[in-house]
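In the previous chapter we treated chains in isolation. Here, by contrast, the input contains two separate entities that must be folded as one system, with a combined length of 782 residues.
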Amino acid sequence: MLLNNRIFEHYSKDMTISDVIEVMHFTYPRLVVKVNGRLIQKWEYNSTILNENDDVKIHHLLAGG
Amino acid sequence: MDLQEIKKGRKLLNEYKYEKKNLYRGYTDKTLHINISNNEIIEKDVPQEMKDKFLGGKGYGMRYLWDAVTPETKWDSEENEIIVAVGPVGGITQYPGSGKSLVCTISPMTDIPIDSNVGGYFGPYLKFSGFDALEIQGKADRDVIIIIDGKEKTVRIEEAPLEAVDGHVLGEQLTNMYANTESEKRLVSVITAGTAAEHTRIGILNFTFYDLRRKTARMKQAGRGGIGTVFRNKKIKAVVVIAEEVKGDLNNAFDQSIINEMGIKLHREVAHNDHLQNNMRKIGTAHIIEIMDAYDLLPVHNFQYGSHPDTKKIESKVFIRDYCTQNMPDGCWYGCSVACSKAADNFELKTGPYKGHKVVVDGPEYENAAGVGANCGIFDPHAVLELNFYCDTYGIDTISYGTLTAFAMECYERGIINKEITGGLDLKFGNADASLELIHQMAKGEGFGLIAGQGVHRMKKLFVEKYGADAAFLEDIGAEQKGLEYSQYMSKESLAQQGGYGLTNKGPQHDEAWLIFMDMINNQIPTFENKAEALHYFPMFRTWFGLLGLCKLPWNDIVPANNSETEEPAKIQEHVDNYHKLYYGITGTKIDSAEMIRQSERVYNFQRIFNIRMGKGLRKNDKTPYRTMGPVTKEEYLSRESNYEKQMNELGFDLSGKSVEEKIAMLRKHRENQYEQLTDAVYKRRGWTMNGVPTPEKLRDLGMDLPELLEVIKPYL
């Protein structure tokens, strides 16, 4: 599985978006999540199960500065 | 002291009466020029060409400053100016974040132009009193106050020997002096500095805004680059503006209904989304303290590390719970529903000349907490707020103060300086008492405070020349570039953010390009060309706010609910479209994103050439200290050892049998090379030579092939 165009080393079968966020310690609340180009809404994070070949993007829209 | 007594000390030096010109489509087309050497006060017309090319705000500031100085001008030269200017959108009350002033001068930190943006009421009130910009030139013999009275249509210069100097006292004194009633206090705004601005190079300007609920004159800061030092060197105690009135239509816009519509739309967004997004209304920018820590980006111990177990003691919820008053309309200009100017009320000071006083602390903002807190290893929220307060009232920059104190602390811990040199200050990381003593020394102009107040650049030189420190090591660990201290983000693991700091005009301040997450976490800009595009677009886009009189925060600290569904969420295109409409609503001229960027490019390239004219602005000036690019010391390397080794393995480096020192050297060679390649790509994208000089073709394309610019760049082509 790719996470933000990098190989995701912590992938395991039946992993969900919520699991990835937890593993990666992505604590920031404003995330834009896409799986294979499809936008995933926050309420779908627990139910979206990821496959080994998925292209996952979890982008932080952190404003900063 | 009684106000009447203070007034008795005043001596009128000059008074000028003027006819107030009403605004038309956001402009008065008048500038007020005051020379305090000879007390001359004149009005200047703003030519159409200047409006077309420089727009307003920082654009006006840079143009006037260029005309005032020569390549030989220093920060304390008589001809150096302080220019305060608003842009055409500045002063509207419908759209959040529309009250910013831009201040420009030749900086005592960098010896090149500095620009700093600031909230508070002064800028809009200056415009409502008849002037798009204020230029102050010259140096007074004795302390003076300038009063711009928009009610009486007079400008006065008065000797002012008895007033206080510290910002919170003087702001209050002058607000009370020039208002007859409580509600009239809202119509007074004051620029002050503070006592430490007299003894250091990191002076700020405080701009007041009267808080009716708290019944006090609060302050926002033009913080970067030592403008307050120039202010006090000119012997200006304060500049006061008194507005006749504040109404929503004073800009005499081309089409007020467009502005109203955009404002209502954004107010709704703020009301519906802020609590789901950044909590700006609860705690302002301090909401990212714990986020930065969680992502290893919070500077700790002079930018050595990116997180600390004690950050929880200064995270935003501590300030929300224990210090900052909630549910207050904390906008620093009318109509700003983002309301991020939080304050701690009834805060009892434990040290210094105001010990025991209960004061209002304007803050903390993220930069305060990260700078005077984490970067110095101080995780005591009360100490953070007390340092925040004293930085403001003494008139010094919290960002520079945090970074230079962290540098001094590291030098102390490594034995480069000792108690003999610090005059007994035990400058260990985490010693809040020592930091507070240091800041009081700066205000009194004594002890190690005098040395530290010169900034990191000059401390490095002194420690090498006087105390035999290792010059190369200090170059590595001193977080400054062009003479300005870094602001409070760790850029080590983001090449794009290294460029966001290093490839700037004024020095390493994050307000041009803040790309850490886009680059490091999101991996959205993996190639040099991708990074270069971001390091072109974002600095130009953000420059535009400073031309118009706008705050950056309502652009991306609140976003439309469906922003994530757009093609480029990072740009927040719906808000960009709002700005196009606001500009049209005010001026009657339609622009699109391309023209918006070109408007900024004109001023940005002008400023770059201004730097070259003053002796900086070339490639060699854009190099950055290695502490901001990678691990300088063994401890830093070991704190992220697995990450560094993974990176080097992926790059195909043979690490077998290599010592930590050898690995650090290999990584350094790689990263420095990456930065050079990034510099090439950015210069190319910006239309500059590989030495960082804007080309005549680029200037022609922008309509900026002005003879004075072509003359400066000619020797470098």
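The interface with chain B takes residues 4-6, 25, 27-30, 32, 39, 57-65 of chain A (CB under 8 Å). Chain A has one helix and five strands. Compare these points with the single-chain example from earlier in the chapter.
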